[in-house]
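#onboarding

Welcome to the new folks! Below is a worked example of what a typical request in this channel looks like: someone posts a single protein sequence, and someone else replies with the predicted structure as tokens. Don't worry about understanding the tokens yet, we'll cover that in week two.

Example request:
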Amino acid sequence: MQYLKWKDGNEYDGSQINPSWAFQEFGVKDSTIVSWVGPMNILGDNLIDYEDVGVDIKGNLMLNFIVEHFDEQPGNLKLAYHRQRMLVMITRDKLLDYGIRTTQDGDDIFIDNKKLSVSIATASISTMKMHFALNITTEGTPDDVETSALEDNNMSMEQIHELQDSIANTYMEHIETIDKDITKTRVF
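Example response:
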């Protein structure tokens, strides 16, 4: 698995959740975790979650992650959601390093009952994908959702970039150690 940083400022519009996006964008033939800081504005055609149809999913500045795994064909949606929850729990642990206490409901992270994150997982015939993002600011987030942001918790951009690397590297370490555990386990 490879960690790639996309240029900050790029917008997440939902098209990046399409299979093999990292290969098309970066030429990488591997499972990837791609991260960047930028706005989010998911367009109607790119909505994956049936519950979100007709809902604004946007924010002026987000810490975005796109994860793609090619280790099962066809892609396993249940495994994708398990991995998504693992990414959420890693993020919560990392936020504690900065003194930020959170709660979790499914794949959502909250600070003081205000939504900090957005996330979706999906699968195709060849891949499993997820998008996960944290609000850096509450500006531009939907008016009908109470949101929280990293900047409201005194995180500087330098700290946000440290958090970005820490989340991605820890996620990859977990995936690698799971793979190693599988190879050393006697099965019957």
